[in-house]
Predict the 3D structure of the following.
Amino acid sequence: MKKLALLLLVGLAACNIDGGTAPVDPNAPRNLSFQLMPSGDPNLPLGILLAWDPPTNGRAAVFDVYGRSNGSGWIRRATTTSTTFHDAGVPQSQYYVVAFDEAGQEMGQSETIVVDLAARLPAPLGLTSTTLSHAIHLQWDDNAVTSTIAAFDHYRVYSSAYSSAKGICEAPWYFEGSTVSDAFLVGNLANGQARCFAVSAISTDGHESVWSSARLDTPRSDAKSVLVYVAESKSDSAAFLFNDETPKILGVVAPLSRIDADFTLNRHADGTVWLTPARVGSTVRLYQTSTIADLSVIDRAPLSGYTAAPIEVTPGLGYVFQVQETDGFHYGAIRVQFVTKDFVVFDWSYQDGVGNAELARRKR
């Protein structure tokens, strides 16, 4: 009787009646998991990587991997000596793994896992952009992270060319890179050439979300802290060209005599400094009556309100230009840092794209 009672106690301990961890089958593969490989299409991943732990008895020599989709019959996908398997292409909806010993005898079977391609994070919302020179800075909301914090892994960023004639983002889309941040800088872009951008969210198991709404932006040229003299102080440096068309140089400080200058600076008798559109077709307007913290506040050039008349230069204010060039009109902007009786220091931006009003560097 004592021997029987001891055997019952051992059996109860093995069954973990107290609610602890279930006993491990020493003959079966354990912890079968998967990692999807994003492709850019949430419904068509490049493949799936399966991984599992071998049986604890150490006798497993070979593993058979089985899969099936939509309730169809099970198919052996592979035989491998590894504890991982890469199944290329669209994955099966279910998988399990069987272990065999060196004699080819079946030892045990893993649990079955389910691969649901629809079990993904929500698409990132609120994609905005910051226009830079030869680059675009993207930013978006963190809704994909906050929806299921434990499931989020990273973002993928894509871009494509934009057809102004068709008014569409044109395929193919290109993978720009990945980030764990809700912002990304796309560099090495051509100024004046519009591109489309989109972002997806990737979960820890590789599910890719539907893409964000596409964002259109166009890199443009800019520079900081340019000094231009007033004509009464130094006439050989009293004019400015956003784009010197013949040598194709941007941001040129030029003599007052340049008839193709976009604007010139003069000091009036009362000591105030004024800028005057110079070349034929060059016009200017005040961006707003209050000061702006940075040139990037001028996100898009206003489409009206320009004049060829002189306008007073005031520190902290922004000014927008519409400039007629040989290929059409372009927009430029300056933000005045400070003004003295002899010179003005300002930041400037210029849009290479003909008729494109995008100028600034902050999100919109």
Notes: DSSP finds two helices and 25 strands in the chain.
